[in-house]
Write a structure and sequence with these properties.
Layout: E1 4-8, E2 15-18, E3 31-34, E4 40-44, E5 47-51, E6 66-70, H1 81-90, E7 96-98, H2 100-107, E8 114-115, E9 121-124, E10 127-135, E11 147-153, E12 157-159, E13 173-177, H3 185-195, E14 199-203, H4 210-226, E15 230-231, E16 239-241
Parallel strand pairs: 2-16, 5-6, 6-7, 7-8, 12-13, 13-14, 14-15
Antiparallel strand pairs: 1-2, 3-4, 3-16, 4-5, 9-10, 10-11, 11-12
Helix pairs in contact: 3-4
Length: about 240
Amino acid sequence: MDAILLGLSAASGQAVYQTSLSTSATMAFMKITKFEHAFVAIEVDDSTIVIDPGKFSHNLPELSNVVGVVLTHEHDDHTFAPHLAAIRSAFPDVPIWGTAGSQAALAQAGIPVTSVTPGDEVTVGPFTLGFYGGAHAIIHSSIPQIANLGVSVNSKFFYSGDSFVVPQHEVDVLAVPSSAPWLKVAEVMDYVAAVKPKVAFPTHDALWAEPGIALTNARISEVVSSLGGTFAPLNPGEQLEV
């Protein structure tokens, strides 16, 4: 399976990739846009789910018809109150789901969050969201471990947040954490091998300089390719159509 570079988006000038999954008649067309670090937007039928709009995305991009926001945990590289306030200003009734920690952190900013836990499932618009995991990966024994959620979108896309949780279903598209103080590249490779996605792209990568991104992308690509899958080396603003 190849990730085909279709060309550049007329709106953003960024690359747009497409895979053979895009031709499936059994699932709604999904457009995934990677932004800086862990920030991802997923569009289906002109509706958008936003995941982890954190502080490393210095400027909030233009978003359309946001019907829900998912926060994997309360660290500000995933949960940034100014971005969430701007999203709520543009879409006042948008629901936000996250951990109890995210709920408490954002209450101080007057931003309501519905707390969800592993095993919960919610439906909004054309999206069914499933939540997995429970705990943030250990950074250091001196740092308290917090709650973390992995999120599945339409049983097709999966992102683990700051963890290596493996979902209980086959994964078409995996957003792979690729740089963090809680991981090493060998663990990333083992995680991709455990999930066995059909397509993978890197996320959580703002901590790397370009050489580090290139090295980690190469290792992820090796594992995905060995499993017969596709690696899409998305940069911020680029899209994957599946």
